[in-house]
Amino acid sequence: MWIIRTAISRPYTFIVLAILILIISPVVILRTPTDIFPNINIPVIAVGWQYTGLNPEEMEGRITTVYERALTTLVDNIQHIESTTVLGQAIVKIFLQPSASLDTANAQVTAVSQTILRQLPAGTQPPLIINYSASSVPILQLALSGNGLTEQQLNDLGLNFLRTQLVTVPGAAIPYPFGGKQRQVMVNLDISLLQSKGLSAADVVSAVNMQNLVLPSGTAKIDEFEYDVDLNASPRTVAELNDLPIKTVQNATIYLRDVAQASDGFAPQTNIVRQDGRRSTLVTVLKAGNASTIDVVNGIRSLLPRVEQTLPPNLKIQPLADQSVFVRAAVNGVVREAIIAACLTAVMILIFLGSWRSTLIIAVSIPLSILTSVIVLGFLHETVNIMTLGGLALAVGILVDDATVTMRTWSGISKGDLPCALP
């Protein structure tokens, strides 16, 4: 073959190429993302609608169907649409054509979602728009617990303090935490007192809405001064809600405290997380985009000590389900197998051929072949994942066979046993 003749006639050229591979490979390896699965580009946009308490039939007829028709009118390159509607929730998945631009589709879906709000039932909130990727999998989970901390406090710390700081890690996507109780001001009605006063729940809701307002107040100019004007249209504390008047009957004012009790409570809990038999909160870290799993996990772990300084001292953050351990083990396994294969092949060549030169060539050629493959993967913008690592592990066996046959052939040529091997 021409490459063998070139290597024999110009050995220093290949020595320089080998040194160049050794120099380039560390740079390329450090820049190549390391992940569990390869990047699978599936252009899918998920849109989540929420209308608390609305039954699935009404949700499907008044929100899901109307929104799907608007999507087919104003969004380009739609392959098909899938939707799931349950009590108070609707998830619409928009599958795009493989050649579609995800940025353009995001802009169009966002525009449609804001425009269609006017045609949906009153009180419908803007949807949550999520870009779906098959390679976006949980890579780390953080369990929150602590003595003296309630479920409301754990959820609040995970949602508003821990999550907002961890999302600054490049490539990290952190959804809302699981478990815990979401803090919410609750007005607990006493039905018997309502009936005795001749009131209904709608009267209480109307009174709270009308007297718990956030209004602009502006300023007042008096002489040469301009003063800020504050309005007391909204209670400052939860206890003040109990003093809101609901109705006046025969010169007697009925207050909220007479028929209900406002308290600092929590929304109805829909999921529970237990750690060591105790209720806790779970924060899940996802990998977004082309980031490396190892880099994201290392960034989260290095940031945690600094974040813990801003949280209560009795809060305990325990990392769980670290996928970077599996990725590191896979990478180390391929490296270990390559080293063992190179060493065993070199020993076999040394024993049977008795040539130190052949032994050195074998010991260098197998690692160089692996490094060359990784460099090519880096230039092709691929990731080091279980698929590519499995292929490299299989290639090590082929390299051992080829190296053994090549060195045996070269030994025969050098001894004159195979004069016709290289014409």
Report on the structure:
With 423 residues, the protein is an alpha+beta fold. It folds into 4 domains: 118 residues, Multidrug efflux transporter AcrB transmembrane fold; 91 residues, Multidrug efflux transporter AcrB pore domain (Alpha-Beta Plaits, 2-Layer Sandwich), CATH 3.30.70; 100 residues, Alpha-Beta Plaits (2-Layer Sandwich); 82 residues, Multidrug efflux transporter AcrB TolC docking domain, DN and DC subdomains (2-Layer Sandwich), CATH 3.30.2090.10. It is built from 12 helices and 16 strands. Strands 5, 6, 7, 14, 15 and 16 form a 6-stranded antiparallel beta sheet that branches. The longest helix has 31 residues. 21% of the residues are buried. The C terminus is likely disordered.
Key terms:
423 residues; alpha+beta; Multidrug efflux transporter AcrB transmembrane fold; Alpha-Beta Plaits; 4 domains; four-stranded antiparallel sheet; 12 helices; disordered C terminus
Question: Helix proportion of residues, in percent?
Answer: 40-55%
Number of strands: 16
CATH superfamily of the largest domain, please? Multidrug efflux transporter AcrB transmembrane domain
Low-pLDDT ranges = 417-423
CATH architecture of the largest domain: Up-down Bundle
Output mean pLDDT.
Answer: 83
Look at the structure and give the CATH class of the largest domain: Mainly Alpha
Number of helices: 12
The major beta sheet can be summarized as: 6 strands, antiparallel
Total separate domains: 4
Distance between the termini: 9 Å
